Amino acid sequence: MHYRPDPALSVLAAHRWPEQRARTVANLAYIILAPRTEYCGSVGSQAQMRVVRNRAEELGFGFDCFWLSDYPSGRELSKVLYHRGIEGLILTGDEEQSRINLEWSHFCHVALGEDTNLPLCNRVRYDWFDALLKAIDRALERGYKRIGIALMDHQNSVINQALVSGCFIAGQKLSMLGLPILPTATFQPNQTDGKPLREWFHENQPDVVISSNIRAYYLMDEAGIQFPKAAGFVYLHRSHSPGEERLSAMDDLCSLRVSRTVELLAQLIHLNQKGILKYPRIMLIQGEWYEGETLPDRHTESVPLGG
After folding, report:
1. Strand residue runs (E) in the chain
2. For residue range 185-214, what is the model confidence (pLDDT) as tens digits?
């Protein structure tokens, strides 16, 4: 008499009888920690919510969405979630930890992304470390020798630590290959002046710039550095924004990350693993190369790149 519906069987049923929607076995909630004004204006965030809903329904879950900002506190939101019979939470966005303050013991949960203000949550996030090393390897394969790295201060310790670690490993590899190790450039999320990046570029003469954010491309382009004429360019977190299709990048596979988040939550619900776990489950999703036009193969170029 203690039967707990198995989401995995719901997936099997959905494949076995594709014309029938899987029966709802539990309810989960998509909790948006960011203010409505920030979230509603983001096309990527809305697409992310659609992927969550679709994957949840495929697995047989009911789905609802809540904004933390609509409630006086996380405790008040927890009461609403509990009385609606919601068992699982997917959390996204950023908010001060004191404001979140959910009654964790009532719910299974997975955080989507790198929000450092959450407690030790189960989470699925992008592997920035792997993305940087893959981008560097791709540049080396194509004949680039002077690897320049431009990092945005993400104001997020998880991302920054991954990128700094990647730079350290990359430096060791370049040293072993007898290639120069160039100083790393940094820029701020709200930076509008491209002069510091331009000065870094002319002083160090990289033949490729690998950046953690597309903003470096626009700052340097406005400062008169044209890619790929002056150098190759790669960024690590493809945004899918119109007009950026030509830029070579690492694709963070957002839809896959979101789907894996729902699947991990399904496992936790099946195992009844509620609350803050002593050993949280962390899943890193590695990106894949997106070709673009800004990292041409230097082995086949008739005219060398030059500043």
Report:
1. 26-32, 61-67, 86-92, 108-112, 123-126, 147-152, 185-187, 208-211, 232-235, 248-251, 282-285, 288-290
2. 999 988 999 999 999 999 999 999 999 999
